[in-house]
Write a structure and sequence with these properties.
The protein has 513 residues and is α/β, with parallel strands linked by helices. 47% of the residues lie in helices and 16% in strands. Helix 6 runs antiparallel to helix 7.
């Protein structure tokens, strides 16, 4: 059988295709950031392609169903922590949270349903798997609307050398190399079954891409370390008080006491340039009009503080609340702030909640925040500090906008992951955020209420890290860098190339061998 030949329904039992799709989904989420069995990520696409090839003689609905099953298994396993999050965050209760997790997984899984249909369409036009597989994957990683963007590349976060190419093309460029490995295995298996000729060119390309990725990684790490050794630095402290937002609402004074007590401890241990408190560190309403005196926040502390709080004011006759980051200077004045732009569904707002207010009655724990309108950095002396809040640091395109417009010297993420309890999510959040440090060659400082707080250096190494559900402080020296990377300038160019390749294959039919 040649590469261009199409299997018939009699040779492609439906149950075998579905079994392969489910296996591929299991490989994907087990190899992904949460479970961390990363070698499976170099094989996870092989079962999916096998399943889609088996069904090429069937209708497009079969390809859609196969892809949807693969994607749903992937997302259900990867986002299993949503059940605990929703039961705590929204207040719906366990059973409705399980139902929402299932619906949400089915929705996210539809990205691979799109993949399945597009794969079949292009294969039917005579294009071989070697041409179709990777551009289609880039398309769904790039453009499929998702609350939590997922990249295959997130699986390799621990292989520091191999993820350095993120500063060239972001997470999707790493996905390309990983997909090439998957494709080489798949085509090698087909060759062993006599279904195609020897894929020498593909194997050579995969070996070359893998080798160049490793070489680039080694060279780039050396270059960045050299720049770090010459850059000016700041000594920072991070406070983690291990209190969730509900505890802070009930025991507001205890939350304030813990932040002050731990900050004093940091000051006693040695001089600091800056202390970082997490998202929602101060829950009483704070003014929006700057500047204002912050002595009630810092008490007797001498060190400048970046902290998260709730700002409120009347705009157009209506009271608005914002999830805000403030910079409290050495003189006790707050002169710089940033409002969270990407609000978290069900936690910070409810979809259609303004249209149907009863939804807020059904979800008593959901807030009614207003989204910010700018991505300007905080000004700290000569330094610019960009402060993505909560899950904004997992959004590659959003963080790139922040860096391009603000040209920060450092990224500081303020987060409250207490909603997720003792689950994989706080670890996954840290893993996904590490790529932002690599993409823009900046330190990433993460201050969380209950873990995992961390300092990530510009090559993606975690140089300081707290525990989960612990009360502790971190100290670290960070270097202030300002270089512009290729990814910062040109963004997700692998996605554009993938879309262009798909359009070319849609327009031009290829004769089958």
């Amino acid at each position: 059988m040649t590469e261009g030949s199409i299997a018939t329904p009699s040779l492609a039992p439906r149950r075998r295709a579905y079994g392969l799709a489910a296996l591929g989904g299991a490989f994907y989420f087990l190899g992904w950031a949460g479970f961390g069995w990363w070698p499976l990520s170099l094989l996870c696409l092989v079962p999916l392609w096998g399943a889609l090839e088996l069904g090429l003689g069937r209708s497009w609905r079969h390809s859609l169903a196969v892809g949807w099953l693969d994607g749903t298994v992937t997302c259900a396993g990867g986002y299993h922590w949503l059940v605990e999050f929703l039961s705590v965050f929204s207040g719906y209760g366990y059973a409705p949270s399980v139902l929402f997790w299932m619906v949400f997984s089915a929705y996210l899984g539809f990205n691979f349903a799109v993949y399945g249909v597009l794969y079949r369409t292009l294969r039917k036009r005579g294009w071989p798997t070697s041409y179709v597989a990777i551009p289609t994957l880039l398309l769904i990683e790039w453009l499929y609307p998702s609350l939590f963007p997922t990249y295959l590349s997130n699986s390799l976060h621990a292989l520091t050398t191999f993820v350095q190419i993120a500063d060239l093309g972001g997470p999707m460029l790493i996905t390309v190399v990983m997909a090439l490995v998957n494709l080489s295995v798949f085509e090698g298996w087909r060759w062993s079954r006599g279904r195609r000729t020897t894929p020498r060119l593909l194997w050579s390309l995969t070996v070359a891409a893998t080798a160049l990725t490793a070489i680039y990684g080694d060279l780039r790490i050396d270059q960045i370390e050299a720049r770090m050794s010459e850059a000016p630095s700041l000594e920072i402290g991070i406070v983690q008080v291990n209190m969730g937002i509900f505890e802070k609402r009930v025991e507001a004074e205890e939350g304030r006491r813990r932040h002050l007590e731990q900050s004093r401890q940091l000051e006693r241990e040695g001089d600091l340039d800056l202390i970082v408190w997490p998202e929602s560190a101060y829950i009483s309403f704070l003014p929006r009009e700057l500047p204002w005196n912050g002595d009630r926040i810092r008490s007797d502390l001498d060190t400048p503080i970046i902290f998260g709080g709730i700002s409120a004011g009347v705009e157009d006759g209506k009271r608005q609340m914002y999830n805000t980051v403030f910079l409290l200077g050495e003189d006790g004045m707050v002169r710089s702030s940033y409002d969270k732009t990407y609000l978290l569904m069900f936690g910070e707002y409810l979809p259609f909640g303004e249209m149907f207010p009863i939804l807020y009655e059904l979800s008593p724990n959901s807030s009614r925040f207003t989204a910010g309108t700018h991505v300007r950095p905080l000004r700290f002396g000569d330094w610019r500090i960009s402060t993505p809040v909560c899950y904004e640091d997992v959004l590659a395109r959003f963080t790139r906008t922040m860096v391009r417009e603000g040209r920060p010297h450092v990224l500081m993420n303020l987060t409250n992951d207490a909603w997720f309890g003792d689950s994989q999510e706080p670890y996954i959040h840290l893993v996904l955020s590490k790529f932002r440090a690599i993409e823009h060659r900046r330190y990433l400082v993460r201050s969380t209420n209950s873990g995992i707080s961390a300092v990530v250096d510009p090559v993606g190494r975690v140089v300081a890290q707290s525990g989960l559900l612990t009360r502790e402080n971190l100290r670290s020296e960070i270097q202030m860098l300002e270089d512009e990377t290729i990814y910062t300038r040109f963004g997700d160019w692998p996605g554009w190339i993938g879309v262009a390749a798909i359009l070319w294959m849609v327009i031009r039919r290829r004769n089958r061998a």
